[in-house]
Amino acid sequence: MTTATLSRRKFLKQGGVIVATFSLAGPAAIAQQAARPPLPGGLNNNRMLDGWIRINANGRVTIHTGKCEIGQGILTALAQIAADELDVAYERIDMVSADTARTPNEGMTAGSLSVENSGTALRFACAEARGLLLAAAAQKLNVAVEKLSVVDGAISASPVRTTYWDLVKDLNLKREATAVAKPKPPSQHKVIGKNILRRDLPAKVTGGSAFVQDMRLPGMVFGRVVRPPSYRAQLVSVDEAAVKAMPGVVAVARDGSFLAVAAEREEQAIKAAQALRTSAKWSETPDLPPGGSGGTAGAALYDHLKKMPSRDSVIKAVVPVNSSGGKITTVEAEYTRPFQAHGSIGPSCAVAQFKDGKYTVWTHSQGVFPLRNDLSKALRTPVANITCTHVEGSGCYGHNGADDVACDAALLARATGGRPVKLQWMRDDEFGWEPYGSAMIMKMQAHLDESKSIVHWQHEMWSHPHSTRPMSRPDGSFVLGGWHLANPVPATTPNNSPQPSGAADRNAVPLYDFPRQNVLLHYLTDMPVRTSALRTLGAYANVFALESFIDETALAAGADPVEFRLRHMKNPRARAVIELAAQKAGWQANAKGDGRNNESKGRGIAFAQYKNLAAYCAVVAEVTVDRNGNVRVTRAVSAVDAGLIVNPDGIVNQIEGGIIQSASWTLKEQIKFDRQRITTRSWADYPIFTFNDVPVVEVHLINMPNERSLGVGEGSQGPTVAAIANAIAHATGKRLRDLPFTADKVRMAPA
To answer: What does the alpha-carbon distance between residue 670 and residue 588 come to, in Å, rounded to a whole number?
Structure first.
């Protein structure tokens, strides 16, 4: 067996969440960094003010952020923060984001952390820059700082006046931030808290150049990659000569099992890739797990997962000093989630150019700095030779093929004679090779005392890794192209992110006040199916199980689900969103499901604070279930507390999108495979929500201006799936525990 074969097999048994970062600094530099006082948010690792802000003589302000726009409206919100803290008009702000040559390194745009981290950094950095500008103006005008006022960058103390733009030569932002200058109190906000039109939408809705898929560079050629037919397949032979002779073909790149082609026109690249695929001979191994065909066969998959080797850990164990006595009622249930895809509407794409020994890559990666590190390994060149610039993609939230296609494009660019190449994945590539959200099993147990309150709670889960993204690691790589080379760069060993954020165990620790809790994780590092970060990581499945089981336990206690939750919840902000969602939905305690006209109607509620750290969100779902088992979500009502609200419309957008996405996962989506290949390869194989499936969605916000802003982007997915499950149970008397809730499963479920 060759080294390449061993490495390719190894990558499918590796990959995962990396919680450490790799630094090239020496011990003295690391010790010096550790000795400095911590700074707020993203400032802590990016301390130079000029890395965040530039005041320009032309009357514009340039704001740099390491976070990127991926459809969440983050550049609009960050510009609002900067405008308020600097006292300039929002329209003066120009945003530069996620560029390894120009912006702070803020790692991944993930985990609903952009406003929390980058927004916090900008609040303090802009407050400090404003103070420096006022100090420079006071010296220039010979006026005390406290007598100066600022309106849209104009500084005055009658009768003298200057502007930020006049002070550019007197301003030195090439200094470390101190975070001494305090951001403005909410009472002084003029832009924060307002609905500002999104910066990213005009080009998207008018057919402009909005995405990396739309890029056109001088001399650009078009590329396609030919992936193996299955995970462990190895390229034995291919007729390169015949393809090189095809019309328009510029280059064929082959390195081990990596195979790609570039042509003058896109349709020529597609035809050439098809010819390569037809002539290619591969060796394959039938070693995918059983039960991949879904439905009742899926039980075999979950049995297989339980038998796999695992790293077991106790995530939380709380044992009371005085255990409850008396009669105990035990409730148990098990819930499952299949492998699920990102389902990006636009397949992954990147543009790359290799010229004078340097690579430039335009990518919709959510982490250009970590991607650059992994590309340096696959391309075998120092990171200084690579520039990665974020350009929005018609893609997704989470780790789909964006990083992989960037590597594909860079590898192909080496063969195009310095011409830029745009490499676009096909739909088959996206479904067959993107990392999926992990299949999971959640086994729940609760003990009720004589008062019908929960005195013991146990949550046990089995899961593969939830992030095998490129990371700043000295060992291994997480881009496909690197794995398929003749001299491969295999993935490194996966880890699970620690609590309180977690990954596989995200939101497995209940926020409820149970006197005794046990949370156990069986972490499966052997990945027969490639998995990584699908939006919310493990929180979607864990909240599904936790909040479904709360309802099942409430039923065993003879209690209303809302009252039962509030009985076990002391957190006032959590209680507030549960109460508001129930109120706005017209919740009636202990109301029965409504069955008539061959369909049943029901409603369910669920709650979570994302990661137990971010936004509080409660969702009430209303469903109808027809006699054939088809479930339709007709209405979803949500209440959200995200602390200080920067852009209300942006929060509503995120919660609405999360509800719709989660409902689609819940009712329709699962990846299927046989013992050798992924069989889900097209939209026909992977149905998602259409416009006709979308429910009426209401979002009610609780503004907490004196609290810090909380991440909201992934707040509603977990509550939505559980609310739908609880609503189906309320409507039909059938408890569904195996996702997705297809019509067949509804019909077959026992009452």
So the answer is: 34
Q: Which tokens go with 356?
A: 């004078």
Give the span between the Cα atoms of 624 and 610, in whole angstroms. 28
pLDDT at 10: 33
Q: What letter represents residue 686's amino acid?
A: Y
| pLDDT, tens digit, 9 for 90 and up, residues 154-191 | 999 999 999 999 999 989 999 999 999 999 999 999 99
Long-range contacts at 296-304 (CB < 8 A, ≥ 24 apart): 296/748, 298/336, 298/338, 298/670, 298/738, 301/338, 301/439, 302/336, 302/439, 302/441, 302/462
675/616 same-domain check: yes
Give the number of residues written for the chain. Answer: 751
Kindly state whether residue 41 falls inside one of the protein's structural domains. Answer: yes
Residues 345-380 pLDDT 10s: 999 999 999 999 999 999 999 999 999 999 999 999
Using CA atoms, how far apart are residues 190 and 506, in angstroms rounded to an integer?
36
Terminal Cα-to-Cα distance of the chain (whole angstroms): 54
Residues 156 and 53 in one domain: yes
Q: How far is CA 284 from CA 236, 650, 698, in A?
A: 10, 47, 50
736 domain residue, yes or no: yes
Choose the weakest-confidence range: 40-49, 207-216, 591-600, 665-674: 591-600
Q: Does 674 map to a domain?
A: yes
Residue where a domain terminates, one of 199, 233, 256:
199
**Minimum mean pLDDT among 489-498, 536-545, 562-571: which range?**
489-498
509, 585: one domain: yes
Within-domain flag for 19: no
| Distance (Å, whole) CA 68 – CA 713 | 14
Give helix 120-141 / helix 74-86 axis angle, nearest 10°. Answer: 30
> For residue 605, what is the domain's CATH number?
3.30.365.10
- What is the model's pTM? 0.93
Phi-psi region of 374 (alpha: psi -120 to 50; beta: other; left: phi over 0): alpha
pLDDT of residue 19: 24
Q: Both 249 and 373 in a single domain? A: yes
Per-residue confidence at 112, pLDDT binned at 50, 70, 90? confident
Q: What is the pLDDT of residue 597?
A: 75
Q: Which amino acid is at 375?
A: L
The predicted pLDDT at position 7 comes to 32
pLDDT band at 322 (very low <50, low <70, confident <90, very high): low
Give yes or no: residues 536 and 609 share one domain: yes
Same domain for 183 and 235, yes or no, is no
One-letter identity of residue 380: R
Total number of domains in the chain: 3
Could you give the CA distance from residue 601 to residue 533 in angstroms, rounded to a whole number?
Answer: 34
Cα separation of 129 and 438, whole Å? Answer: 45
* Cα–Cα distance measured from residue 213 to residue 363, given in angstroms and rounded to the nearest whole number: 10
Domain boundary pick from 168, 199, 230: 199
Q: Are 395 and 363 in contact (CB under 8 A)?
A: no
- Which residues, at least 6 apart from 657, have a Cβ–Cβ distance to it below 8 Å? none
Give CA–CA dist 629/624, Å, rounded: 10
Q: Which domain holds residue 551?
A: 440-467+503-748
Q: How confident is the model at residue 595 (pLDDT cuts 50, 70, 90)?
A: confident
Per-residue pLDDT, averaged over 624-642, amounts to 97
Q: Are residues 539 and 516 in the same domain?
A: yes
Q: Which two tokens stand for residue 561?
A: 């689900």
Residues 612 and 705 in one domain: yes
pLDDT tops 60 at residue 429: yes
Distances (CA, A) of 328 to 293, 317, 423, 545, 550: 40, 20, 62, 22, 17
- H or E, element range at 133: helix 120-141
Coil/strand/helix, residue 436: strand
d(CA 75, CA 715): 19
Token pair 């088809």: residue: 630
Residue found under tokens 């596989």? 504
- For 289-314, what is each residue's pLDDT tens digit? 999 988 777 899 999 999 999 999 99
